[in-house]
Amino acid sequence: MAENGHYSLMIHGGAGMLESLKDPKTASRYRQSIHRILEHGREVLESGGSALQTVATCATLLEDDPLFNAGRGSVLNELGKVEMDAAIMDGRDLSAGAVAAVQNIANPIQLAHQVMSKSEHVMLIAEGALRFADQCGIEQTPDNYFYTPERIAQLEQARLNDKIVLDHDETDSEDEAQKYGTIGAVARDLTGNLAAATSTGGMVNKSMGRVGDSPIVGAGVYADNETCAVSATGYGEDFMRTLIGKTISDLMLMKTLDGVQATAAGIDYFKRKVQGRGGVIVVDKNGQCSRGLTTKKLIHGWIEKSAESMVGFD
Ligand code: ASP
Q: Could you tell me whether strands 183-188 and 8-16 are parallel, antiparallel, or unpaired per DSSP bridges?
């Protein structure tokens, strides 16, 4: 039986090389943002809020911060458009909601939450998701909210190099100061319930209609009260082929590993099978926090068992 009476929370802001973290000013911006959002999450958890409410709140705040590749700060696709993916999952009953390839939605995670709570479905995409947003009273946000000069310059660079790149790709070290990352949150509340949320603008210069791992249950997001909550960031195609979230959960369930061991074993599998590039954050059923990565950096922060908030870059 998992013990109650404490809470845990982890959030991430992307994985990659992030040369820009060598600049103390940039590192401090990330640090402050992660710390601020963790403390918001703490307020929700301390006031008896659910893990689900907590990850939705943290993901929304991360989407609102243009520092990260999600919501407002989303990267641009091959046509210079923003197409976002997001998903949320409740470990109590494995209910989940996801949206993919949506445009003009300020907070895709909230739309994903509505899909989970107000529709019969797990995932809605593109026009259908927008139609549903309208039915839920979620207004569309004009283009100029998303299209920043930094994102346009980043796309031009990727086009010049004829590449599809992670927002903070290791091989794309040009203009590192402009690089931001996909976001995610995983939590365990005071009563031991788990939840996970992931949201992204995807990869720079990606094909129109490309959907990554972030909205795929079992790949970029997973939560099961019996095991753990997982959020991933990195090359979506690598995570989709290895179902990293479900793999880590299954390692706990079937091999009776704890969260730290299962995360290490999951990352090992991810590396061995597909030379996977990226990282994960994991909170297990006992509130133990862990992270695993194959990239040089993973921007993340955590509160383990109600303790003080911590921020880490690797
Ligand atoms: N995993 C995201 C995707 O492939 C990108 C990222 O995490 O930065 O869409």
A: antiparallel
